[in-house]
Design brief:
Chain A is an alpha/beta fold. Chain A is built from 9 helices and 10 strands. Chain A has a domain of 70 residues. Helices cover 34% and strands 25% of the residues of chain A. Chain B has 210 residues and is an all-alpha fold. Classes of the chains: A alpha/beta (253), B mainly alpha (210).
Amino acid sequence: MMSQADTRPAIEFRHVSYRVNGDASRELLHDLNLEVQRGETLVLLGRSGSGKTTTLKLINHLLTPSEGELRVEARLTRDWDVIRLRRMIGYVIQEVGLFPHFTVERNIGLVPKIENWPARRIADRVRELLALVGLDPEIGSRYPRELSGGQRQRVGVARALAADPPILLMDEPFGALDPITRAELQREFLGLQKRLRKTVVFVTHDLREGLFLGTRIALMEAGRLVTVQTAEEFPACAEPLAAAYTSAFGTGV
Amino acid sequence: MNLWQFMLQNHTEVLELTLEHLWLVGISTLLAVLVGIPLGILITRYPALNRPVLGGANIIQTIPSLALFGFLLPAPWIGARADRLAILALALYALLPLIRNTYAGIKGVDRAVAEAGRGMGMTDRQLLFQVELPLALGVIIAGVRVATVISVGLATIAAAIGAGGLGEYIFRGLAMVNNQVILAGAIPAAAMALLADLSLGWLEKRLSPH
């Protein structure tokens, strides 16, 4: 892995566009230029259809850029061995996507397992991760359907962190939770990130969540990047759409 | 002479025909499973093959069984023996439910689950064997169940080309205009179909992930 002193961006978009099956009338992302610095939490903020999730899926190569260059750890995503690339990127999605036929332990230990870690080391790591995301170790032997939404999402985060990937992609991970659980997980995630210093790309449509968790906010609309601001600057940003967001979320931000 | 007496008197023949019937159904279903499930998996990986494969299996399904036996008759090696011919025909008929259910079972796996697996860096093979197939197993077994039950019924027609099985009694009874003899073939066949349905239904429930 790269050292912390490395000043090159962890993720770098250069004129990246994405069109569904190369169809020009279905352009989901247009000429994106964006850098994600090592150890920061970059929030992609925008409405549905703004291109946030597309941007995320380009990073772990679930989608391939139609145009432009996208580098992860200074290497073009299309030059990476896609399996290696994905195993160094944790991925958390709103629907969690836990395997229903695996216990919590097996779910969390999945990437270490396919990376051929010895069983003892996997078991130790799983126990460590359960504690890290604030779950009772007893939960390890349960199945996802026996958990609450908040517990499931914690397992999702633990699973993404299992092999200690330097990069974490999070697609509205707390979007489906009730407000109280949601606030709790946001606080815990912030605490976790202060310790772990991962490079995080976090998708949300909730400005309040974005400002709370993000180092910088990248505002997107209709497949285009509107503006990138630090979390401190964003509320005062004069750009009309950014201002509209700030006023829509009112005095709470 | 009633049905019961007839079956008792001819119990060795009843048993023999039942075993023949089981053999025809068992081997043909096994063949169909060995071909149909891989084909079902294949068309989830290569969508372009979806229509030709499912279309082909559909067309086979529309051929009347007697006609299919006739078509296969000139085939080398296969046509030389009636039981080979019957097994091949039965296997061909069993393909459609197997291919369709394998495909539907895999496609029915929650998209978020499959995407999470791929996003975490599972290879296609790992995703297939550790996630998709285990989650699709219930639906695939349901396909085996349908195929087996259809096959038990269809195998009675194999007697028309001399392949044996319980159809022997049915055709003999028809020729003799004797309902007892027809029933001596039809009742064990029906029992076999029910038994296959129940046991595979049980297995389907056991192997479904929830």
